[in-house]
Amino acid sequence: MTTRSGWHRRPLPLPPLQGDRRVDLVVVGLGGSGLAAVHAALDAERSVVGIDAGPHPAVGAAGRNGGFLLAGLAAFHPEARARWGEAAAALYAHTLTAMAAMAEETPDLVVRAGSLRVETTAAGQAALDVHHEALRADGFRAVRVPAGLFLPDDGVFDPFARSQARAALAVRRGADLVQATVRGVEPGAVRTDRGVVQAEAVLVCVDGGLARIVPNLAGHVVDVRLQMLCTGSGGDPSPAVATYLRDGLDYAQRRPDGTWFVGGGRDVSAVAERTSEDRVTQPVQGHLDALLAQVGGGTVRHRWAGIVGYSPDGLPWCRPVPEQPGVWAAGGYCGTGNVVGWMAGRSLVAQALDGVDALAACLDQARTHASARVG
Ligand SMILES: Cc1cc2nc3c(=O)[nH]c(=O)nc-3n(C[C@H](O)[C@H](O)[C@H](O)COP(=O)(O)OP(=O)(O)OC[C@H]3O[C@@H](n4cnc5c(N)ncnc54)[C@H](O)[C@@H]3O)c2cc1C
């Protein structure tokens, strides 16, 4: 990592893996999705080891993101319906259920005060109306307000604090969370720089950098860099509403202490941002400075970047790894993995233990619709 994110506070240190282990399930990656998988394994009363290369959980995107909890996948609902048919509404409903569960898990860290989509152009205003209609047609809550489109079920959270809290609870529940760098995964085993962990099921929960661990997912999930900044605290805080602008390309969250967390501008240098290199750049940070001035201003305290996974079809990978029986992977959330990653992590455990899962079935239905449409 080049810089710590503005969220970084009171990390939970991970002890190093001490030699070889054998457990029921091994989870690679202790971001939001990996920690969700660890808890799902514990819920199923299975022994579980969680491995991360970082010195603490959520060293990657899960601990350095915008802190938005949004319903739906990355595509706005009108586009989702066009691409995935009826599966779009089912996926949206899954994310609402997931958000409620996440809020229940950490009630002090999640604020479900809604999100506001703001558009300033005439075309953008028309898009808000279409978005509004599509949600209402499927029975989801959305309110057209003068400032934009308000989605009352969305929310915000401190992604770093929540990850540390979930990791600490997992350890208290009996999970073994350790630090080690994974060199490779194979059916029944994860090889690391500190030993081999053998397990009935290997679950790789890594969004950005997934194909480095599972090379045959290259092409299914590709790395993209996202950048952010935050200010110092102070000023008059407004209620915590997640605000996103310009088709969701820009986003801003104001915390109760007055700190602004501002991100986006990926399109400013779209080709350069298709990278695994985790560093901030002037073109994008310059755009974020202008965005900060637009939303409220303040003195910048931290600037940082994070790597996420994008999938060409906009659907996450949340399924077995081809040609590697007993290995499942999740990633490719297209920049919106806080809720979808939580769902995907839990889904991998259900797939590994039960062979079926409602989210995986829904994603398959969406893929089938998309390919029939193209065909
Ligand atoms: C700047 C930014 C803003 C964002 N804003 C939002 C937002 O507001 N809302 C939203 O929903 N999403 C947002 N996202 C996307 C979201 O953060 C990610 O999709 C999500 O956090 C992915 O979580 P994860 O647990 O799957 O992966 P990660 O958080 O990337 O975790 C993967 C873990 O795997 C570990 N790892 C990687 N390689 C190895 C290895 N070889 N050995 C061992 N461990 C390894 C890493 O150390 C890391 O901890 C944003 C992302 C960024 C970067």
Kindly describe this structure.
This protein is of the alpha+beta class and 375 residues long. The chain has a domain at 110-156 and 223-309: 2-Layer Sandwich (D-Amino Acid Oxidase, Chain A, domain 2). The chain contains nine helices and 19 strands. Helix 1 (32-43) packs parallel to helix 5 (159-172). The relative contact order is 0.20. Flavin-adenine dinucleotide binds at residues 28-34, 51-54, 59-62, 64-68, 181-182, 205-209, 213, 226-228, 263, 306, 308, 331, 333, 335-339, 341.
Structural class category: alpha+beta
Q: Would you count the extended β strands for me?
A: 19
Q: Looking at this structure, what is the CATH superfamily of one domain?
A: D-Amino Acid Oxidase, subunit A, domain 2
Name the shape in a single word. globular
What order do the helices and strands follow? EHEEHHEEHEEEHEEEEHEEEEHEEEHH
CATH topology of one domain: D-Amino Acid Oxidase, Chain A, domain 2
The total count of helices amounts to 9
Report the major sheet.
8 strands, mixed
Average pLDDT level: 96
The CATH C-level name of one domain is Alpha Beta
Proper CATH architecture of one domain: 2-Layer Sandwich
End-to-end separation: 42 Å
